[in-house]
Design goal:
With about 300 residues, the protein is of the alpha/beta class. It is built from 12 helices and 9 strands. It starts with a strand and ends in a 10-residue tail after the last helix.
Length: about 300
């Protein structure tokens, strides 16, 4: 039995360990392993390369899970210990990581953030980025969404309705986008997540809270178990470590740091990072249009 220490875990991961009775392995990858319990709640055990997330438990060692586990491996769960085949993960001394950014502070700095994004977009469009590689992908992500699905109208509708805090229209667009695409987190879901994260910044907390929760609760039953977990986390205001670092870079105003974090986000999954960033930037671009009189802001109704 190989014993492994956990470095950190999110509150949802801690609660998953305490409350799960009959979990099973959902996916096994080299650097991550996903589990689901009887309540359809997801836990991800990941290596430090992936890092903290809304339902992640980060282990200390660089273990290749695919060499130790299969979907049929036996597992047993205790509040501070998880036995996976011949692996034992101990969480006694793991740090509790908060997945929720300081949305109130980010909302108060929303105009500064908008300025940084618009400046960066201008730089990318003029090809003045210090990054020679990946510039095409960055330029694509800074424009309106380029999803690998044929629902461009619905993605634009979601952007407009979330920007205007129009809940009924947001839910209609969400139903058309949720679950669209391929993979464990379809492109439509990733796009919704990015748009919801932007909503937490541009809208006051009391509006963002309702909008994010309602949109993600409509989307979650229409997609995969893993994607539903990400959607519901975004609906509660939680985000992964790369989004935290991206927000931090936007607050510092350092253009090089911002582009470094965008590059890291773009590298997530096959297109997951690109699709989520497209949703986030799409909402901010539309919100900029509000100030130019191109959109008329409304309220949740």
């Amino acid at each position: 039995m190989q014993s492994i220490k956990a470095l950190s875990l999110a509150p949802d991961a801690r609660d998953w360990l305490a409350n799960s009775r009959h979990p099973r392995i959902l996916h096994v990858f080299d650097r991550a392993c996903n589990f689901i319990n009887e309540c359809r709640e997801v836990l991800s055990i990941v290596t430090p390369q992936i890092g903290n997330g809304p339902f992640n438990l980060v282990i200390q060692e660089d273990v290749r899970f695919s060499e130790h586990l299969s979907l049929e491996s036996l597992i047993s769960v205790f509040p501070t210990q998880l036995n996976l085949g011949h692996l034992t993960i101990n969480t006694d001394n793991a740090k509790l990581w908060s997945p929720r950014p300081d949305w109130e502070m980010l909302h108060n700095r929303r105009y500064d953030i908008l300025g940084q994004l618009m400046s960066l977009r201008a730089t990318i469009e003029s090809k003045q980025s210090p990054f020679e590689s990946g510039i095409a992908s960055q330029r694509e992500a800074m424009t309106l969404p380029q999803l690998p699905i044929t629902n461009y109208q619905s993605s634009n509708s979601l952007i407009s309705s979330i920007t205007n805090a129009d809940l009924p229209s947001s839910l209609t667009a969400t139903q058309k986008l949720a679950g669209l695409g391929i993979g464990l987190t379809p492109a439509g879901d990733d796009f919704i997540i990015g748009a919801v994260l932007a909503a937490w910044i541009i809208h006051p907390p009391e509006i963002a809270r309702v909008l994010a929760k309602e949109v993600t609760e409509v989307a979650a039953p229409l997609t995969t178990s893993l994607s539903a977990a990400w959607l519901r986390s975004a609906g509660r205001g939680a985000a992964g470590i790369l989004w935290h670092k991206f927000f931090e870079s936007l607050l510092t105003g350092n253009s090089f740091s911002i582009q470094v974090q965008i590059t890291k986000l773009l590298s997530v999954g096959h297109t997951s990072g690109e699709d989520a960033l497209a949703g986030f930037l799409g909402v901010f671009t539309a919100w900029a249009g509000v100030f130019r009189g191109e959109l008329r802001p409304t309220v949740i109704r």
